[in-house]
């Protein structure tokens, strides 16, 4: 039996008044119920914990322990402390452990939810023995017993049972972040760590304390590279950062460093305890894209790949051309004014001929990485102050895991039984419809402010399994905190303060937006499909009422999309002030607690299809929604053509539209490209090579250019190919209808002096892009505009851009956040 009779004290509900509020400036005065803040921020207010590491190297039959790393109050030192950890799980039927060795304690929890017992252990050996016993006795066939609910991460188990969280009483700038980037010499294309001569030649380093350092080889020898790697280890340990950041660092930089360290017998001992990193295969999902990668964990430090932060940002924005470091830095305005650019395939030449320029290039890489990380990591920092997760865990885990961890921690604190996930599906989604296509304007966007959260709060939405009412309490608290923080942000005079407040309010927004998705997520233990459908049903009715109100007041509705309406205001409502007033007045027709906000005005709109349109702002910039018009998977020349065509359509310049088509056609025929990436296509591997081959062999899919070229690249370079990797290629041959996988080459193989791209194929692609605009013209006019000129030339006289009213089919958006 456990030797400590008071072991459950750690899991018990504390006295009223316990809870951390210092992490939120407005929390103490604004929240009359400290119990809710204990649910949101944890019950233990220990400040400045920067990491929590389980001590898994000890024998598994010894008491489980963790090590806490805490920054001193002046921020200059790191102190450590060890503490006991009691591994635990929830179980539905305690008799499944009958006859098991008496190495645990259990307690029956309050309530009648499915997981009614909490089982606690002294050691990891006892914990895993009990898990195996339950698995053996379980009737579940899939290897994951329905009778068990486990919290997988040891650090997360500790944080749940103690109520501790990281970073309390800290600001983002208090965290010591170090950035790293390597450059590799290779005369054989893409670097291969297994090739002896493909050495690491440069390691550029920086941090958020105005420090930079560039390490580089002084000779092309194994001894020199070994010395470089040893120096890198020493520098990291001397700087002692809390966080190590890189760009695509998991799949390239760290993977490459570890392989070269192994080659030279160097211990990459950068852990705070002197240990080497632990590596494991992992994956992350970004909307429709799943990325497999070799993850790396460093004891006492967090490893953050800024590449993933950029992809996570673009899940919602959807307007980054690609995810390269240089593109991301330009997009956010973080590229240094005198930024040095060097093509990736010329690294070896610059190392030989202009080494100083290459060193400048490497340093610019880490400077951009630091700026991107500082901008994109703020909300994750503040999420870490709330969640029972470490910083690295909060960066990697999805919204479902985040929100569930808060609920489970509170149910554990209250010693209440947990529900299990209910099987089923959500039958209703968001309301989307289109009422007009064509060129329209001026346009106003009326947004129902926080539609689903407002519905959940005002219509008493709560999952059936939430017997403690944590769902509405946390949602209400987060909503109030966000409103208070946004007001403080508006009042702040200092840009740095505003930026920190913006990151804080965004962390609340991340959690708020997860509540609805959690209701309809199959694997969430607090799901409730009926309640999810009720939210969607109410949301649809509110939007229908809003549409009717706009029309009754003389507006012309163009499109409705889940939580807002695009419309042309009445003729007597012109100018920003009048449009704002008209929009806000719509609130009077809404149910109590539902507010209509003004979310933008636009000079013109190209309404194309449902959830696919282009908006031109009053400063002339374009905003796009949907992938039917411009998809990043399309060739660059096609995206440019469509964008330029839209600009001409908005100007009603039919003559210019025809000239644009002719210009692109002539450029294709003349091989007049900026570079190969103007016409190459870039696609993401959505499966592993092994899965692809199995599917082909079993007749479940045809052969595809992307995978065939990935196989070829893997064979040629020895580079590991993973799900989520991107392949750029172009089509060869002379027939427009060639079989792609038989007539394709990697983009890096194209020679501008001997162009071999398939001109007929790319002319066909131009015509396919042109057909996007077929809906805006009569058949005869469309053929005139988008075809080569004949003997009679082209005239735009009499050609009109058509407006149509599609038949409304009032569909719902089937997508839910998880």
UniProtKB/TrEMBL annotation:
The keyword NAD does not apply. Its EC number is 2.7.7.7. Keywords: DNA-binding, DNA-directed DNA polymerase, Nucleotidyltransferase, Transferase. It is an enzyme of class 2 (transferase). Residues 467-766 form the DNA-directed DNA polymerase family B multifunctional domain. Residues 174-327 form the DNA-directed DNA polymerase family B exonuclease domain. The keyword Disulfide bond does not apply. It comes from the Bacteria. Coiled coil: none annotated. It catalyses: DNA(n) + a 2'-deoxyribonucleoside 5'-triphosphate = DNA(n+1) + diphosphate. Residues 1-43 are annotated as: Disordered. One of its GO terms (molecular function) is DNA-directed DNA polymerase activity. Belongs to the DNA polymerase type-B family. This is DNA-directed DNA polymerase. It comes from Longibacter salinarum.
